[in-house]
Each structure stands twice: as C-alpha cells, then as structure tokens.
Inverse folding.
C-alpha cells in the first residue's frame, strides 16, 4: 500500500512527477479515500482525483448537461405523485374545514405546527451551514453549501404551507399581513405569531438571494458551454439547446467573469453571509418565541431560543447528509468533492449539536424540578411516563442517544452508519416538535381537560405530501441546477495556491 | 511545503520549518516578573481590607452588617477572576477541538490564563469559609433557621444543601483543575519534544472535556450566582454565564497580546490579522451575550410569571435599573457599533481599549447578578470603595499570577505542528 500522501500526490502531478493522472485512486486502510488524515501537520485534501480546474467544470456541468442517470425519472415520478397529495389534501381541507384534522378543543395545535417547525428548522440549517461556515472560514463548506442552500429554500416552501392552512378560514389568511382594510382590523403586533410572518418571509427572501447570487457565475459557465456546444455542433440547432443557452443566459444576468464582477461578487457574498447569520438566529428564535412567550408548562422556558437554533442546525445537517450520501453514490465523480472527511466533519457537528439539544432537554427537566412549579414538573413527568412517553423516548433515543455512536471513529467514517443516524435524527427532530407541542397541550393545568390527539389520514397524508414536495423540488434542483459552487471548489484546490508544489514563501 | 517535511509526514517528530522562525525574544519574557509581585501585593492588600471589614475590625458607618457587605463585594471579584480563567479554559478546548490553525500563536496566552485555576481555587476558599462559618449571609438558603417552613427552600433542599453544595464545588474544581493541568501541561511538553501526536491527544481530550466543562460551568453558575436567590430559576442561566465568561477571557487575552506587542514581542507571530479575528470573536460574543441576555429577559417579561419576574423586578427599582440600562447601552450597543469597524479590530491599541471596556462591562454584569441580592436598593451602595476593593482584590491577585506565568513561559507554542498556518494567517476580504 502506498504511503504517498494525497496532497503530495496532487502536488507531484502538478510538478509533472506523477505521470498517470487517470489512474484509480488507491484505497488506503488508514486514510480511507485519502482524506482521513489525522496528522496535525497537514490538512486533508478537499478535492480528490488529481483534478484540474477543467475537470471540475466538466464534472459539475456534466450533471446538468448529461442528466443524472436512469434512476432520476422514476424517482422523480414517484415523488411528484406523492407531492400531488398536498393540493388534494389542502383542497379537501379548505372545502371541508380544519375538522378533517385530528385537532380538538384541548389540542388545537398538532401536526400542522409540528410540520411547520420541522420544516422551518431544516430550512434554517441550510443558510446557517453555508453562512456560518463561510464566516468561520471552513473551506470544506464549498462542497456542501449549494445543496444545503437549495434544501433551505425547499424546506421553507414546505414550512410556509402549514401556518397558512392551519388558520381555518384560509381566505382570511391575508389578514396575517398588516394590510389596511375597511374593518380597521389589524394583526396583533405584540404576538410572536405575527413576527413569524415577517421573520419567515424575510428569511425566505434573503436565503433565496444568497442561493441565487452564489449560482450566477455557475449559470454563466453553463450558458457559455451551451452556446459553445451549439456552435461546435453546426447544422440545425435543436430548440432544446437554444432554450438551454437562453435560459442560462437569462439566469446569469450578464455575468462575464471579469475581475470587477468577481470582486463585487465576493464582497456581496461575504455581506450576505454576515446578514444571514444573525437573521437565521433571530428567525428561529422567533419561532421558539411562539411557544416560550406563553405560560403553558413545557413551552415557557428561557433556554428555548438557543435550544431551537441548535436543534435546527442538528436537524439540518442530518437532512443534508440524508440527501448527500445517496447523491455521492448516484452521481459519478461526486466522491471527489464530497469526501469521507466531509462526511466525518458533518457527523461531528451532528454529535456536537445533538449534545447541545440533549443539554437543553436536561436543563428543562432539571429546572422543571428546581423551579418548584408543580405544573411544569408534572408536564415533564408526563412526557417521560405518560401517554406520550413513546414519543418522548423516540425523541431521546433518536436525538441524544443515536448520535453518540459518532464517538467511535469507525462509525463517523462509515457513510452507511452516518446515513442511518441522519435518518434517525430527522425522525427524532420531528418527534421533538411533536413532543413539545402535543404533550404540553394534552396535559395542561386541568386534568379534567386532558385528552389525546389522534391524527387523521388527512393529517398524515398532508405531511407525506410535504415530504414529496421537498423531494420533488430537490430532484429538480439536481437535474437542472449546478449542485456545486464551481469557483469555490476550485478555490480550495491545491492549484489555487500559488505556492503549490514548491517551497517559495 | 518543503520536501523534507513531506517525505517525513508520518514521523511525529519531524521538524516544522516554521519553528526556526521564532525569535529568542519570544521564547521567554522575564520582564513581567516585577509587575507580578506588585499586582499580587496590591490584590492581597485589597483583600485584607475587605477581610478586615468582614471580621469587624473596620466598622462601616451606618450599615448594620459589614460582614454581609464585604462578602458580597468579594464575591463579585471572585466571579470575575473565575470567569477570566474558566473562560480561557473553554477557549483553549474549543480551539483544540476545532483543530484551529490560525490561532496557534494566540493559544499560549489562553493556556496561561487557564492555568490560573489553582489560584481561583485559593480565591474560592473565603467563599467556602463564609458558607461554613456564617451560613446564610450570602446564600440565604444555607441558613436553616431563616428559611424554615419556606416551601421553596424545602422543595429544593435535596439540591440546595450545604454538604451537596460543597461536594459539587469539589467536583467542579476537580474537573477544571484536571482539564487545565492536562491541556496546559501537554502543550508545554510539546514545546520540548515537538511531538505532533500531542496535538491529536489535546484534540481528543478537548472533545470529551467540553461536555464536562459545559455541565460543570452551568451548575457552578447555578450554585454560586443564581443560587444567591434560591427562589429564582432560568434554564438559560448557564448559557448566559458561559457567554459572559468567554467575553472576559477574550478581553484579558486581547489586552495581554496588545501589551506584549507593545513591548516589542510576538512580531510576525501575532499580527494585525490575528487581532482582526480576535476582534471578530469579541464582536460575536458581544452579540451572543446580548442575544442570550435579551432572550432571558424578554421571555420572563412576556410571560410575566411572578416567581420569575421577581428577580428582574428587584433589579428594576431602587437604583439598580441604572445598571440594567448600562448593560444594554454599554455592554451591547456601544461595543457592537464600535467593533463593526474594521480599523478598530485591526488596531491592537484600539481593540485593547474596547476589550478593557468590555472587561469592565462584564464585571458590571456579574455585579448586576450578585450585588442586588445583598440589599433591596442601591442605598446598599453607600460604601462603593468597599465594592471596588472587593472587585479589585481577587482580580489583581489573579492578574499578578497570570503575569508571572506569562513571564516564565514561551510566549507561543514553540513546536506546534500548525505554527506555519498561524504565521501565514491573513484576512484577505
């Protein structure tokens, strides 16, 4: 087995010392694909396969130009059909009324708001991953930021569905906005539910801008390649090729790769990252205020804002891994960009944020006792031992216990284990919101009012439909948009360093 | 990268060319020793005066209990000293856990501050003595007679009892002393051997140490500061306490590094770019502190449940509200606006000034948490000089020992494998 370090390999190839760039990479028992280097002196390479800048462009653009492969269309068709449940169920809900859900007088928030917080949490993670890791100068983010941002947009779209339809009379939902009206009725500006409307819509706008702006140079590359292909082919140009070149040209907003463009782009990108970071924190904190400003035991506790933010990062990283691990198997060459080191880093973040969430769970429990509020304590006792104990323990095992496997090196380096844990965390984070919302409402102050919540098929199918919507949008993203920020990936390759391969300082 | 290093990549003792670039002046700095003795002497003198008041040797005019006043003023100083040291331990572990390269040349000063935890333990002894000899003077729940029949105190007795309180303090200090001893000791050992595996060991230890650190810090905050008012509770308090401590640590280290640079040391090792990033950290923890403090206040205000609001209600009258306003304007808005400027962050002098200011604000924040428990209104502030001495005493003692440690150790890790990354650190954008 070779002891040649991957960095050295790449540097050697640049210097013309390693002759065969196309040779398959040797699998090293210690460093895996070559990135699991534990030596403090060096840093693991972020892009494998001795790639040149050109080959990065070819591969990333190839996903869009050649299409992802045969698996895509069947997957897309299935998820699109599942997504079609949303208009069906929502249409039925609007025609019939919210009685088609399992809500009752006691539990007047259940799956609707659980789904909202679940999706908005995933939605918050994407921009947080991208922006915070950018501010922290974590170079490995370049491989995951685009997908994470895309995931954000789609998750916020799914989240936006639920508050709108849970109000009962959907045709009055416009009153969420402070629009002057003949009745002189205004929303309650002192309610966090209203702040949510502003916060989430601001967040969606900024996230979409952040995502789109990052893609502009890549759109320009795709445009130029599409135009070049038309020229090279000669003869009659098919309409699809024209459409492609025109569409990417439109999206690229006249980007010409000039020095001035890049300079402004980088400045704008940094500023957007700086704006997005506090925005994400404040938006998810406001979501937590929806609960924590109330006096309901189990909802009112001061740690909610940072606890919700940690939970969002936790659930979001799990969703990113859940999407990326299959992707890197399905797309040829993707393992060069998303290496084992990338997966390990994300597994570590899952472990850290999982423990933050666990810390918050235990603080809540401790203070429920220490605070000596008997209602608070009973809510927590009921959570752990009452009728919703199964949900509570699902949450604890998925969110607190399952990530602990990442203390073991072999587990956090195995894509399969990471995939399974990320699945568990995604489930656990849904249950966390369910536990917070439903178990607190089900057993509040008066035992005479206690009751259970049972979801109806409409509840379940609306949620399943939102999962289908999310997946459909993500599949469309995979098919039609550049999945990696090409310029940023090139920036972290050894060639971008003027000192690569020699010792001039 | 030199070929010699590359071919020896798996040799844990292979030298890093960056090591040779450290000037002898940065390998030791004996000049601070005189400063150290002066600071310690001054600090001990301050503590002696506070002790004289506590023991009744100096009578306070007008006030009925000099002991209570003295204990509370000393407690603020202890809290600040603990915060600087404990916060630094947290930063050291976070930097190690992140495998941070840019901060290699800064880490030694954080380690020096973390190594002050034995001093903090000594500074804790008066608090312990007060708990044993004059129970209930500071922590009301410790006085069994005073809280007899008090339902909240009885409910919390399994946690808030003197034996368990002492046991917990012992556990906290055991965790902190062990972690700081290993983190600092291993880093010093690497100065001699240059063994790269030490960096990996430090990283692993930081990873399991941080959860222990988080829990011990939280409960120490509960026990020593939140516990001053046994009726009050807040799940956020641990996070609030962490944010304040980290700010204290950053402020201390920024000032230290700026002074060292002024003395002509650390040239080429700690550059404007490092101050820029330290400034960003100071900025982000200022914002984080404000976020946590606001969320805690806001949620309690909004829900308006009496057993929670009492703590803030107490601080919103009788003159204490001035301190509350100072927290908003002086601890957050002012530094926030100033630290937005790139020029401030990149200037060691300006950044150090902001850091001194934040140090004062963090002290005022701890004062805000601790002192209003002693007296219902700011008429309890009739002997401000005693508060100043109580604050200065522990802080000066800690700073004195810290200066001695800075003087007796290399100013940067001499053989850290990531030294070259810190030396090449740049903020391009």
């Amino acid at each position: 087995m070779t002891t040649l370090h991957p960095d050295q390999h790449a540097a050697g190839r640049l210097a013309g010392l390693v002759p065969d760039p196309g040779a398959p990479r040797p699998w090293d028992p210690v460093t895996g694909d070559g990135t699991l280097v534990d030596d403090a002196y060096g840093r693991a390479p972020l892009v494998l396969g001795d790639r040149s800048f050109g080959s990065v462009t070819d591969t990333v653009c190839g996903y869009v130009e050649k299409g992802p492969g045969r698996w895509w269309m069947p997957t897309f068709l299935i998820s699109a059909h599942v997504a079609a449940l949303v208009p069906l169920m929502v249409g039925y809900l609007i025609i019939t009324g919210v009685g088609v859900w399992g809500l009752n007088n006691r539990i007047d928030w259940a799956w609707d708001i659980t789904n909202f917080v679940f999706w908005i949490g995933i939605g918050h993670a994407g921009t947080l991953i991208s922006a915070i890791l950018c501010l922290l100068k974590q170079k490995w983010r370049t491989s995951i930021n685009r997908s994470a941002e895309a995931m954000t947009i789609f998750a916020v779209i799914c989240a936006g569905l639920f508050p709108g339809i849970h109000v009962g009379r959907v045709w009055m939902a416009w009153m969420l906005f402070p629009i002057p009206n003949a009745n002189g009725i205004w929303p309650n500006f002192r309610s966090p539910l209203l702040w949510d409307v502003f916060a989430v819509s601001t967040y969606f706008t900024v996230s979409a801008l952040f995502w789109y702006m990052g893609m502009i140079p890549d759109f320009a590359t795709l445009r130029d390649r599409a135009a070049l292909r038309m020229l090279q082919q000669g003869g009659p140009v098919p309409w699809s090729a024209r459409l492609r070149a025109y569409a990417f040209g439109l999206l690229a907003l006249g980007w010409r790769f000039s020095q001035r463009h890049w300079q402004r782009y980088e400045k704008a990108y940094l500023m957007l990252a700086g704006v997005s970071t506090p925005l994400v924190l404040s938006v998810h904190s406001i979501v937590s205020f929806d609960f924590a400003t109330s006096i309901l035991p189990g909802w009112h506790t001061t740690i909610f804002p940072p606890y919700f933010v940690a939970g969002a990062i936790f659930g979001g990283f799990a969703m990113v891994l859940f999407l990326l691990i299959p992707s890197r198997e399905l797309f040829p060459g993707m393992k060069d960009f998303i290496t084992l080191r990338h997966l390990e880093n994300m597994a570590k973040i899952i472990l850290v944020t999982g423990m933050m969430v666990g810390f918050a769970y235990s603080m809540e429990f401790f203070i429920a006792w220490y605070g000596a509020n008997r209602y608070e304590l009973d809510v927590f006792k009921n959570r752990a031992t009452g009728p919703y104990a199964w949900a509570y323990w699902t949450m604890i095992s998925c969110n607190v216990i399952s990530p602990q496997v990442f203390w073991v090196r072999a587990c956090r380096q195995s894509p399969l284990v990471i995939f399974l844990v990320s699945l568990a965390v995604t489930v656990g984070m849904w249950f966390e919101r369910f536990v917070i919302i439903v178990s607190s409402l089900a057993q509040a102050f008066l035992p005479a009012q206690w009751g259970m919540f049972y979801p109806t098929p409409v509840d379940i199918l609306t949620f399943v439909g939102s999962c289908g919507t999310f997946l459909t949008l993500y599949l469309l993203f995979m098919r039609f948009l550049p999945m990696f920020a090409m310029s940023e990936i090139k920036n972290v390759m050894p060639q971008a360093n003027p000192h690569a391969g020699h010792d001039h300082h | 990268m030199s070929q010699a290093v590359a071919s020896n990549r798996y040799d844990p003792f292979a030298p890093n060319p960056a090591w040779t670039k450290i000037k002898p002046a940065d390998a030791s700095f004996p000049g601070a020793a005189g400063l150290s003795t002066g600071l310690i002497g001054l600090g001990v003198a301050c503590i002696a005066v506070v002790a004289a008041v506590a023991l009744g040797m100096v009578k306070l005019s007008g006030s009925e209990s000099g002991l209570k006043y003295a204990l509370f003023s000393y407690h603020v100083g202890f809290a600040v000293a603990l915060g600087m040291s404990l916060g630094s331990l947290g930063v050291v572990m976070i930097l190690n856990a992140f495998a941070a390269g840019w901060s290699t040349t800064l880490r030694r000063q954080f380690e020096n501050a973390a190594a002050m935890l034995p001093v903090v333990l000594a500074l804790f002894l008066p608090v312990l003595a007060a708990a044993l000899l004059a129970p209930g003077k500071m922590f009301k729940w410790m006085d069994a007679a005073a809280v007899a029949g008090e339902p909240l105190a009885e409910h919390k007795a399994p946690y808030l009892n003197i034996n368990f309180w002492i046991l917990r303090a012992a556990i906290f200090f055991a965790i902190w002393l062990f972690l700081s001893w290993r983190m600092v000791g291993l880093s010093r050992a690497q100065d001699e051997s240059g063994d790269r595996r030490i960096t990996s060991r430090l990283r692993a230890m930081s990873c399991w140490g941080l959860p222990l650190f988080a829990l011990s810090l939280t409960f120490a905050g509960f026990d020593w500061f939140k516990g001053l008012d046994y009726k009050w509770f807040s799940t956020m308090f641990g996070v609030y306490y962490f944010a304040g401590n980290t700010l204290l640590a950053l402020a201390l280290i920024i000032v230290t590094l700026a002074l060292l640079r002024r003395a002509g040391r650390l040239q080429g090792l700690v550059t404007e770019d490092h101050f820029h990033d330290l400034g960003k950290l100071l900025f982000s923890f200022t914002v984080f502190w404000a976020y946590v403090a606001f969320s805690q206040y806001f949620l309690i205000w909004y829900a308006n449940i009496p057993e929670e609001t009492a703590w803030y209600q107490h601080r919103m009258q009788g003159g204490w509200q001035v301190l509350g306003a100072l927290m908003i304007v002086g601890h957050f808005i002012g530094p926030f606006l100033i630290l937005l400027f790139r020029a401030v962050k990149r200037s060691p002098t300006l950044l150090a000034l902001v850091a001194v200011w934040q140090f004062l604000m963090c002290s005022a924040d701890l004062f805000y948490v601790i002192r209003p428990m002693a007296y219902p209104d700011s008429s309890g502030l009739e002997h401000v000089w005693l508060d100043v001495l109580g604050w200065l005493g522990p802080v000066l003692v800690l700073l004195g020992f810290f200066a001695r440690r800075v003087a007796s150790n290399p100013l940067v890790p001499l053989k850290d494998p990531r030294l070259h990354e810190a030396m090449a650190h740049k903020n391009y954008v």
Summary: The interface with chain B takes residues 3, 5, 7-8, 11, 38-43, 137, 266-267, 270, 278, 281, 285, 289, 292-295, 300-306, 355, 359-360, 363-364, 367, 370-373, 499, 503, 505 of chain A (CB under 8 Å). The first helix of chain A runs from residue 6 to 14. Chain A has a mean pLDDT of 89. The radius of gyration of chain A is 25 Å.
